[in-house]
Amino acid sequence: MNNALVLRKQHRRSKLPGQLVSIGLVAPLFLFLVLTLGFPIAGTLWRAIDDSDVVHALPRTINALRTWDRQSLPDDSVYRLLAVDLQEAREKETLALAARRLNYDLAGFRSLLFSTVRRLSAVSAAPSLKDAMIHLDPAWGDLKHWGAIKNASGPVSLFFLLSAIDVRKNADGSVSMRSKDDSVFLELFKRTFFMSFIVMSICLVLGFPLSYFLTTLPARLAYPMLVLVLVPFWTSLLVRTAAWVVLLQTNGVVNDALGDLHLTQQPLALIYNRLGVYIAMTHILLPFFVLPLYSVMRNISPVYMRAAASLGATPFRTFLRVYLPQCMPGVSAGCLLVFTIAIGFYVTPALVGGADDQMISYYIAFYTNTSANWGLACALSIWLLMVTLLLYWAYTRLLNVVPGSLP
Description:
CATH class of the largest domain: Mainly Alpha
Radius of gyration: 30 Å
Shape: extended
Number of strands: 2
CATH architecture of the largest domain: Orthogonal Bundle
CATH topology of the largest domain: MetI-like fold
Distance between the termini: 39 Å
Number of domains: 2
Oligomer: single chain
Largest sheet: 2 strands, antiparallel
Order of helices and strands: HHHHHHHHHEEHHHHHHHHHH
Helix content: over 70%
């Protein structure tokens, strides 16, 4: 027994140098993934739940409202604390951030805060500051404004994550869907997923026969044809999209060709609409479907089809019961790649599509670069990431249940 333990320890020691070498080789890649993927995702998640602007600007008011019942207006002492906080926030230059955050929840709150702080000196000596502030602006007598301040008491909250799916927290603390007139993002998500599904379906319809055709060609012809499929990878996305703008415009190549062939009487509307977006996105994403499917089809032995035919199966039945199940790993991988890349498209819909064809990535860029609403932009990104992870989970489940798929 002792000899066995000694041999086991010696075996472990002999493997240790190799394990250290393996760890050393993998460590740079792991560190690279942490720096380029882990930290950005963690930062995005934090910005989506960070809600500390108001508590930094109005700490006394937030602390006093922690015991507020939301049923009636706060007492005069809370109004006085608010007045002190507003004056200090203006001096410390933190009022603008708090006003912007409250304005996200309730339109007009920014102007209310700044107009109030400018006129506070005129009413600061009033016996009842509560009545004086309500006289300055009746909005201070509305429970909605006080509820908005309490909802922003931070330092973390689900405000931006809920807003990204058109859910809001009311002044009484309840949660409800926004009205149809105020609902924006759910419709954008539906549009994004619908357009991505259509592009994925078109790639499936075009890419499956193309991949099968490539597998039937001899090697001397298959590789040059495959290179033609790969050409989009070697061209900038912006250049490819701009090329479609030239091709599809009213006086572009496509409309001129259709007119010369007498197939159309007037130019077709092929750009700045949904059709143009589908055409350009399909052209860009088709290789992402063809490559994984072609690699799977190429490794399917024709012996299985000949065996099925020798047993009396018709060509259609052979394809349906023998060939197609073996293609499913490539089909599912291609569909997953196309769909997940499509839901994040920004440049192509922005250049080729119209106002009603913009996808959710356009609004993420808008809230990041134009309105500087990082919380909402990160929340939208988190929901997209969750959809991608859900799709990946469904893909792994599909591989385990589809006949002929890899484990």
